[in-house]
């Protein structure tokens, strides 16, 4: 596979930065309900658990989009596809901000899910075309820096501004930023003609590879554990840590700010040996979640644990997508589609199971469920060597 088009020589890093901002907007849009869960539920006349399902709805449509995007997009230039996805994100934000009831909110979230699935399915393959192979981990870390930005500022600002002005105004504030991002992408992305038409056959061919199927399931469990805890973090902080809106915003800022450290560190941590790193996200984040069950009543203890959790959360994306880029480098769009479908399925898994546990048992049960998924991921990953393609095992 050719990792870099010769036509992108002068535009590559500008395009990566524009994609990083797009990532920030997607993440902010997708998980803003986490910081606004309680007021959104009150405003729409729904339970907190039901409103949490708005995240699972976007996940459902993201799974569908990630599996269909390469087939539906066919031979379309990937630049045009990414611009269309960003424009659709703009529409979804307007719908959510205007939503008079829960049904319209779900429609807006469904459109956002299509954006999320389509973008992420193509993102790693596009990055692999924008930079040389040796720079892919650094470019991925830069792109996922957008995730760190969103995690650092979207949730705490959403919580704080939502308390001052209302949750609808928070979503309106994202609209002009996405519009500017659309213009930047149009200017910075080079032409990216489709290399070949994707189909379900190519997806199945990649999925039949035992090492990839095993790794995909491990990634689903790892992300599922993370999202079960993260989706219902606000209720935990309100009920167990007993924080007010200001302290809540500070804690979310601590969690998100630590994401910059995770992004920076992952770019330097990843070398030729990826296998030993695959278990770190489930191990570290699972341990933090266990400790929250015992130390969650302390604001200081919670802040420290959320900082560690936040750093590993952003590192997890870089670690797993680097694994994908090295082990499915002959079919990056198919591999990316399956990875995104798996991650979005894990978001649904976390949001749905967490909502049921929250409404049916308690917030502590949500964290216990998160730990159980992390343990399952660790058992599947083992040393990580079984998740590598044959010619990678000697350099694991």
From TrEMBL:
<feature type="domain" description="Major facilitator superfamily (MFS) profile">
    <location>
        <begin position="1"/>
        <end position="394"/>
    </location>
</feature>
<feature type="transmembrane region" description="Helical">
    <location>
        <begin position="106"/>
        <end position="127"/>
    </location>
</feature>
<keyword id="KW-1133">Transmembrane helix</keyword>
<feature type="transmembrane region" description="Helical">
    <location>
        <begin position="170"/>
        <end position="190"/>
    </location>
</feature>
<dbReference type="InterPro" id="IPR036259">
    <property type="entry name" value="MFS_trans_sf"/>
</dbReference>
<feature type="transmembrane region" description="Helical">
    <location>
        <begin position="335"/>
        <end position="357"/>
    </location>
</feature>
<feature type="transmembrane region" description="Helical">
    <location>
        <begin position="245"/>
        <end position="265"/>
    </location>
</feature>
<feature type="transmembrane region" description="Helical">
    <location>
        <begin position="81"/>
        <end position="100"/>
    </location>
</feature>
<keyword id="KW-0472">Membrane</keyword>
<keyword id="KW-0812">Transmembrane</keyword>
<dbReference type="Pfam" id="PF07690">
    <property type="entry name" value="MFS_1"/>
</dbReference>
<dbReference type="InterPro" id="IPR011701">
    <property type="entry name" value="MFS"/>
</dbReference>
<feature type="transmembrane region" description="Helical">
    <location>
        <begin position="139"/>
        <end position="158"/>
    </location>
</feature>
<dbReference type="GO" id="GO:0022857">
    <property type="term" value="F:transmembrane transporter activity"/>
</dbReference>
<feature type="transmembrane region" description="Helical">
    <location>
        <begin position="54"/>
        <end position="74"/>
    </location>
</feature>
<dbReference type="InterPro" id="IPR020846">
    <property type="entry name" value="MFS_dom"/>
</dbReference>
<dbReference type="InterPro" id="IPR050189">
    <property type="entry name" value="MFS_Efflux_Transporters"/>
</dbReference>
<feature type="transmembrane region" description="Helical">
    <location>
        <begin position="363"/>
        <end position="382"/>
    </location>
</feature>
<feature type="transmembrane region" description="Helical">
    <location>
        <begin position="211"/>
        <end position="233"/>
    </location>
</feature>
<feature type="transmembrane region" description="Helical">
    <location>
        <begin position="12"/>
        <end position="34"/>
    </location>
</feature>
<protein>
    <recommendedName>
        <fullName>Major facilitator superfamily (MFS) profile domain-containing protein</fullName>
    </recommendedName>
</protein>
<dbReference type="GO" id="GO:0005886">
    <property type="term" value="C:plasma membrane"/>
</dbReference>
<keyword id="KW-1003">Cell membrane</keyword>
């Amino acid at each position: 596979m050719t990792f870099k088009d010769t036509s992108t020589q002068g535009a590559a890093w500008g395009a990566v930065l524009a994609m990083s901002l797009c990532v920030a907007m997607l993440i902010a849009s997708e998980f803003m309900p986490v910081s606004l869960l309680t007021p959104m539920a009150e405003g729409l006349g729904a339970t907190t658990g039901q409103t949490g399902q708005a995240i699972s709805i976007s996940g459902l449509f993201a799974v569908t989009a990630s599996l269909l995007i390469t087939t539906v997009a066919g031979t379309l230039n990937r630049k045009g596809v990414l611009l269309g996805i960003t424009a659709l994100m703009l529409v979804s934000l307007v719908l959510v901000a205007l939503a008079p009831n829960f049904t319209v909110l779900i429609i807006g979230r469904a459109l956002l899910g299509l954006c999320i699935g389509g973008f992420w399915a193509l993102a790693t393959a596009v990055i692999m075309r924008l930079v040389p192979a040796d720079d892919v981990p650094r470019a991925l870390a830069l792109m996922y820096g957008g995730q760190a930005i969103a995690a650092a500022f979207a949730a705490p600002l959403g919580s704080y501004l939502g308390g001052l002005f209302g949750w609808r105004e928070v979503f309106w504030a994202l609209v002009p930023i996405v519009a500017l991002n659309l213009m930047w992408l149009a200017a910075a992305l080079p032409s990216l003609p489709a290399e070949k038409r994707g189909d379900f056959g190519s997806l199945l061919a990649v999925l039949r590879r035992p090492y990839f199927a095993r790794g995909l399931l491990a990634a689903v469990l790892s992300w599922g554990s993370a999202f079960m805890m993260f989706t219902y973090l606000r209720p935990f902080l309100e009920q167990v840590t007993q924080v007010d809106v200001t302290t809540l915003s500070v804690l979310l800022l601590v969690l998100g700010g630590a994401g910059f450290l995770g992004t920076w560190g992952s770019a330097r941590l990843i070398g030729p040996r990826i296998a030993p790193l695959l278990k770190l996200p489930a191990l570290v984040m699972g341990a933090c979640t266990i400790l929250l069950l015992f130390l969650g009543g302390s604001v200081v203890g919670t802040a420290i644990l959320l900082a560690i959790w936040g750093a590993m959360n952003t590192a997890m994306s870089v670690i797993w997508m680097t694994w994908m880029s090295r082990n499915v480098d002959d079919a990056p769009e198919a591999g990316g589609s399956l990875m995104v479908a798996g991650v979005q399925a894990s978001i649904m898994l976390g949001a749905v199971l967490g909502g049921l546990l929250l409404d049916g048992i308690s917030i502590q049960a949500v964290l216990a469920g998160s730990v159980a998924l992390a343990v399952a991921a660790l058992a599947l990953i083992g040393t990580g060597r079984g998740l590598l393609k044959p010619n990678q095992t000697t350099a694991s």
